[in-house]
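request received
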Amino acid sequence: MTDILVYITSGLGALFVLLAAIGTLRMPDQYLRISVNTKAATLGVGLLLTAAALFFLEMSVTTRVIAVIIFILITAPVGAHLIGRTSYFLGNKLWGKSVIDDLEDKYNKSTHELKGHDNEDEKDEKPKPKA
Amino acid sequence: MNVHDFLYYIILPILSISSLLVFVRFIKGPSIVDRVVALDLLITISIGIIAIYSILSDKPTFLDISLVLALIAFLGTVAFAYYLEKRNKND
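response:
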C-alpha cells in the first residue's frame, strides 16, 4: 500500500520538477521564470520529500521532512519576491506581450521608495502610507 | 518492478535531465538575475535528489543535508538580491 503511495508521490514530484526546469529554460521573461521556479519547484520538491517520509514511516524521518517542507514553503516566496524586486529595479524589461505593469512610474528611481499617488491634483485625498 | 528500480531508472533520470536543463539556463542566462534564479532552482532540485537517494541507500540521515541546502539556497538568493540592488543604488 505504501509502495503505491511512494510511486504516486515521487512520480508527481519528478514531473513537477521537470516542468519547472522546462519553464526556466523556455519562458521569455525573467519575471515569468521566477514565477515558474517558485511554484512548480516548491510543489515538486515537497512531493519528493513526502515520498521519502512515506517510504521510511518513522517518527524521526517524518519530523525532518516536515521541517524541510515548511522551511521551503516559507522561504521560497520571500526569495522570489526579493529577486523579482531587484530585477525590476535593475531595469529589466517585461516581456513584450505582458499586459500590465502596475509599478510603472510609481517608485522613486534613486531611493526605490514606492509612492502612493503620482499626480498633483490628487493631493487633497489622504495619501497612502509609504510601502 | 519494485520501488528501488522505479526510483533508480525513472525518477533519478528525470531529475538529472531537469537539472541539466536548468544548467543550460545558468550558462546562457542574459542577465545576472537569471543566473541567481537558476542557481536557486539547481539547489532546490538537489534537495529532491537527496530525498530520492536517501530512499535508495536506505539511510535517512541524508535528509539533514537537505535542510542545510535549503538554508544555503535561501541565504544565497537574499544576499544576491540585497547586494545587486545596493550596487544599482550607489551608481
